[in-house]
Amino acid sequence: MEFLFEGFREGLLRALRADPAVMRAAGVTLQVSFAAILIAALAGLPAGYALAVARFRGRGLAIAVLQTLLGLPTVVIGLLLYGFLSRRGPLGFADLLFTPSAIVAGLVVLALPIVAVFGMTAVASVDARARETAWTLGASPARAAWTVVREARFGMVAAVLAAFGRVASEVGIAMMLGGNIEGYTRTLTTAIALESTRGEFGFGIALGAVLIAVIFATNLLSRWLQRS
What we know:
Elements: H1 2-16, H2 20-53, H3 59-70, H4 74-85, H5 100-124, H6 128-136, H7 141-151, H8 153-168, H9 172-178, H10 188-197, H11 201-227
Helix pairs in contact: 1-11, 2-5, 2-8, 3-5, 4-5, 4-9, 5-8, 5-9, 6-7, 8-11, 10-11
């Protein structure tokens, strides 16, 4: 047990000293996570809204596909995108494999169904009379939609923040598509996996502490937004 206590002590010291290797990994993690969440939110929230309020042929199938993607193993996402982005793949000409952009692409695939499904649930929970009342008062379709979005805003924000927590803690996609390159594609999770296999428990604990702090801050932000 002594090596565990020593690892925790070293990890705490590294985190408090803002170890450069830890901060570099944290910077890459935040960079790819924010980029992925921005893209996923811009595509997923409108999709969730449309699935909640519109009635069209194939709607049930679209919902079923999104809900199925919620349980898609991340290693499968990484493997599929690896095939697309490798030199022999259809997107190999872009030379994106083992770059932050490749990680972002994989994280978007992971986050998009989360944002869309939970965004759809948030919109569907809004009383249908809200949109009908807006129409009765002469609101345009866009204004009526905005009324619904305002009512569902807390649930939609929670959906985005939940997706952020998911992508920030992802390791399989980052490892397969990023290659764990120091200072370039090494995230907190891939660094933890690497250092743990090397027996560097203190370093791994420091990385884990920073990752937990990032996710904890995200949860605090979510609670603050829901109360405001």
